[in-house]
Amino acid sequence: MDSLNLNLAFSHVALVATSADLFQRTVEFYLDFGFSTVRQITHTVPRKDIAHTSTVISEAWLHLFACRPENNVTLRIIHSDGGEDKGLKTATSGGSGSNGIRICLATPEIEDAKKILKQNNTSFTTHPDAESNDDRIATHDPLGNEVFFITQPNTFSIPSSPEVKPMRAHGTPPAEELDLLAEATKRKSIGILTSGGDAQGMNPCVRAVVRMAIARSCRPFLIYEGYQGLVDGGDKIKEATWTDVSGFLTLGGTMIGTARCKEFRDLEGRRKGVRNLIKHGIDALVVIGGDGSLTGADRLRAEWPDHVEQLEKAGEITPEEAAGHGTLMIVGMVGSIDNDLASTDMTIGACSALERICESVDAILSTAMSHQRAFVVEVMGRHCGWLALNAAISTGADYLFIPEAPPSKADWEAAMCRTLKSSRDAGKRTSLVIVAEGALDKDLKPIRADYIREILATRLGYDTRVTILGHVQRGGAPAHFDRFLGTMQGAEAVEAILRATPETPSPVIGMLENKITTQPLKEAIELTGQVAQAIERKDFARAMQLRSQSF
Questions:
Q1: Has this prediction a pTM greater than 0.85?
Q2: Which of 31, 92, 311, 480 is the most exposed place for a label (fewest CB within 10 A)?
Q3: Which is it for strands 146-150 and 135-140: parallel, antiparallel or unpaired?
Q4: Residue 172 in this model has a pLDDT that exceeds 50
């Protein structure tokens, strides 16, 4: 018979528990070793399963997101009614596990696996690994299935099972195991908040942080309503699951909210936030917002040891909580449609806002052409002209005003009129001027859209209208690039937290030359501040130099 190519791929391993207690303990066993709950179902009406003859009462799907995708593992843990299951036999109590299955998990952190087993009072044995200088660990899961921890992935010569000893009944562990309980590894708990003005791409970023945190065996917490939620605590801080961020990728704005918080500007307000973080076990914070929001987060980190000390003295946290939260890790990502952070080529939301501006201006030009009108369109950009500059290029504008590069001539009005008249004389039916809301002349006098309209109407006699796009620039679904940028930066933010030490400066995630970058947050904020300082000194060449290469 000819062999057939079935294009087979690994699906999952099914484990069957015959009691609710065994089911729950088995789920917890694998969660402790980095598996994540992708889906958990309790059937209101127990049902027969196509793969098993027993009745399924509830089931949990766990997934191990390995360092390499081809090594991912999916477990389906089933709570059945105990009927005969010929598809898979599992032990229901301690024993040799010979009727169960053997699961081999590869990890370079063998010692950490030992600590977790000791913390959970789970017996195990260690054996020399012929393939490496490390030990191999043998144990059982609560169902009696053999579980091995080895250092070499895809090892095809696992020794026979006699080395696996029967599981010890629950009781007091030996003294030598108790000594290591306090040293057991602890999963990093990461808080995520959005602050300042909303920007398309924030939701994809939140989604990426949550799912990458779960994939890296961390606990993600959503902090609702920005710093206000951090100060308020309570139900404003909730642990997130994989499905909590389903659908975030295509949504604009921020689904976890943002709000101004005067209380956070005061020391006592920030101390409330510290208490709420500690009570939820959070030891790292990802902040998505503008430079002010990121500066506030870095300040909180600098004050953290003093806050912890004062909270412990006041009895608001226990000595154990204080000892376990000696430092706060901070990672920032810039959610700003203005693209105004120095030392990065693009911020989250800028691309979508530009697309929204172009769509709006295209619509305006169709009516402008019909009536031979001139339009002055004001776009956002109080201190940064990136949106106005790129919109002017993309829509074929006749004239442009931005903060960093004011008109070179004192009589800029006359120069503008000559340019627009020249275009009309060449046969163009419309005139378009793009102005950033923070546009200035060389003497730092604001250039307003209404003033430009007045000049065009009085000096050229054009029928001129002003359109201020306003918050429409923030709205709508994120463009492809912001979905991509938010996802990539969110994933890198989790990695940055895991790499960080108490001595590591708080990083900000950016992008340079289409590569995701990590750099000190404080330096990036200082460079951004230098742009405004250069403009105040009328050093416009320096202001342009500090902007991204796209300028």
A1: no
A2: 480
A3: antiparallel
A4: no
